[in-house]
């Protein structure tokens, strides 16, 4: 199981490959995850936003988690599983299930859609953490419709069993406020375009959909910064920025799935509705990254 001091470096949130008919493509998943774990990543995240979590059934989640954990064991690589929903009871059930299957941590998104109170959100995390599975909180207000206050984030991070936070708040204010007030739990960048900036401001690493492509270059940005090669790291990041911008020009993970399919890493670029395949225009731009 992951501890807070382990939470550093590059974690790759993996896509959930589907066949052309929309069914889960576990064979592609295993080949693709096996290849990723061979790159110097610190771990992978199954069933995150990039894994199209809202469309993945519990049965599929069990298959994906079981496969990823078996592959992770062969490379000694941690497997984090996205278990958060907008319902506390199902979040607790999924988190406990991930723990029983052997997950190293659970990524729990702020409960979306219901616009709960800050107290309700803290209680949501308290109950998820009571499963004993290490929890990484996931703040992404652009998707959840609710923004955590710094006090709420501090309360969540103080809970026993919460080992860190993935910050996709879209800026550095939250993480600066956390460090100003003495919070020591690791912050992982979850907003790819801010990766370098957040590392400079003290982020411990990132959970980055873009790191599915040019994985070693993302690792390099991180390693260079850790070795205080600030300018080299900035230059490495700048070469990745156009790719990041294209990958988020249409809803993630459709652009990423198209690139992975074109590279033969997964069999098809199928996304489940309501997501749709990318436009012809974006295909033409992404083609230069093949
Ligand atoms: O799946 C994830 O985890 C990520 N999702 C974010 C999003 O799609 O908004 C982006 C981030 O790179 C990782």
Shape: globular
Classified by CATH, the class is Alpha Beta
Structural class designation: alpha/beta
Care to count the β-strands? 8
Distance between the termini: 36 Å
Widest sheet, order of strands: 1-2-3-4-5-6-7-8
CATH architecture: Alpha-Beta Barrel
Task: Please write the string of helix (H) and strand (E) elements.
Answer: EHEHEHEHEHHEHEHEHHHH
Largest sheet: 8 strands, parallel, barrel
Helix content: 40-55%
Q: What do the pLDDT scores average to? A: 97
Which fold name is given in CATH as the topology? TIM Barrel
Number of helices: 12
CATH evolutionary superfamily: Aldolase class I
Rounded radius of gyration (Å): 18 Å
User: Ions, cofactors, ligands: which are bound?
Assistant: the ligand O=C(O)C1=N[C@H](C(=O)O)C[C@H](O)C1
Low-confidence segments, ≥5 residues, pLDDT <50?
none
Describe the overall structure:
- With 290 residues, the chain is of the alpha/beta class.
- It has one domain: TIM Barrel (Alpha-Beta Barrel).
- The chain is built from 12 helices and 8 strands.
- Strands 1-2-3-4-5-6-7-8 form an 8-stranded parallel beta barrel, surrounded by 6 helices.
- Helix 3 links the parallel strand 3 and strand 4.
- The termini are far apart.
- The relative contact order is 0.14.
- The model has no long low-confidence stretch (mean pLDDT 97).
- Bound molecules: the ligand O=C(O)C1=N[C@H](C(=O)O)C[C@H](O)C1.
- Ligand LZUJQKHR binds next to loops.
């Amino acid at each position: 199981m992951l501890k807070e001091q382990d939470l550093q470096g590059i974690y790759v949130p993996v896509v959930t490959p589907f066949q052309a008919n929309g069914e889960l493509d576990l064979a592609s998943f295993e080949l693709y995850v096996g290849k990723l774990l061979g790159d110097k990543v610190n771990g992978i995240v199954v069933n995150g936003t990039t894994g199209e979590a809202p469309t993945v059934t519990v049965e599929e989640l069990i298959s994906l988690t079981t496969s990823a954990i078996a592959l992770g064991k062969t490379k000694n690589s941690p497997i984090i599983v996205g278990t958060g929903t907008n319902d506390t009871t199902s979040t607790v059930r999924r988190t406990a299930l991930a723990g029983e299957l052997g997950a190293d941590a659970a990524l729990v998104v702020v409960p979306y859609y219901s616009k709960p109170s800050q107290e309700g959100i803290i209680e949501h995390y308290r109950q998820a953490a009571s499963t004993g599975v290490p929890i990484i909180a996931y703040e992404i207000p652009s998707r959840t419709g609710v923004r955590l206050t710094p006090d709420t984030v501090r309360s969540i991070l103080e809970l026993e069993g919460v080992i860190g936070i993935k910050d996709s708040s879209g800026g550095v204010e939250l993480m600066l406020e956390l460090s100003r007030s003495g919070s020591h739990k690791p912050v992982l960048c979850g907003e790819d375009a801010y990766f370098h900036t957040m590392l400079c401001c003290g982020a411990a690493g990132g959970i980055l959909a873009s790191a599915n492509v040019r994985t070693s270059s993302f690792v390099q940005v991180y390693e260079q910064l850790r070795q205080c090669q600030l300018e080299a790291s900035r230059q490495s990041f700048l070469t990745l920025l156009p790719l990041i911008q294209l990958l988020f020009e249409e809803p993630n993970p459709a652009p990423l799935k198209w690139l992975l399919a074109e590279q033969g890493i997964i069999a098809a670029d199928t996304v489940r509705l309501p997501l749709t395949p990318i436009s012809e225009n974006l295909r033409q731009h992404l083609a230069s990254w093949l």
